[in-house]
Design a protein that fits this description.
Helix 3 runs antiparallel to helix 5. This protein is an alpha/beta fold.
Length: about 180
């Protein structure tokens, strides 16, 4: 089975106060751990790295030699959905099959395992995607503009969505558009 991926690395890192994707862990920038895991997946035929428009060369220079010919870097958009759509557009332009599964992964999540990625791809159907979730254990509060707690939410039935997420190329494009 052919698999594609979009690795979204176009964020500004404002919440962290810096460029978290380039923080090195064991000799590699954080985003490269995610890329390397994607590239190692059985069936992974094409990975699009979506980067800030002003950093395309920096990302291209960091793509491993072994990934040449099955990895490209494209410019992201204003919002995360715009960046994901840019990656989907690059897969489409490369002739990636419409019915093949595509993982969308956040480059700021370098520790996603290949086993998780494989389970997510295995759960994709022609009409439905797959999203990993984790149970919400912390209490969830509603606060007003001053920061005062004005209510609580029931955690029953709530979960936190994670990446990678996957669906077929055609389903992802329709959802993003």
């Amino acid at each position: 089975m052919l698999i594609g991926a979009v690795l979204v690395a176009a964020g500004s890192g404002q919440r962290m106060g810096g460029d978290k994707l380039w923080i090195e862990f064991s000799g590699r920038p954080a985003w490269r751990w995610a890329l390397d895991t994607l590239l190692a997946m059985p069936g992974m035929s094409w990975v699009v790295v979506v980067a800030p428009a002003d950093a395309l060369d920096r990302f291209r220079d960091a793509i491993p030699e072994s990934a040449q010919g099955r990895c490209e870097v494209v410019a992201g958009g204003e919002e995360r959905a715009d960046s994901a759509l840019a990656g989907i557009g690059a897969l489409t332009a490369a002739g990636f099959p419409e019915d093949a599964p595509v993982l969308i992964h956040d480059a700021a999540r370098p520790a996603a395992s290949s086993e998780l990625m494989e389970r997510i791809v295995a759960a994709v159907t022609p009409t439905d995607g797959a999203v990993p979730v984790i149970t919400l254990h912390d209490s969830l509060k509603h606060v007003d503009n001053s920061g005062r707690i004005v209510g609580a939410f029931d955690r029953e039935g709530l979960a936190l969505a994670q990446t990678p997420q996957a669906a077929t190329l055609v389903v992802l494009r329709a959802a993003l558009e």
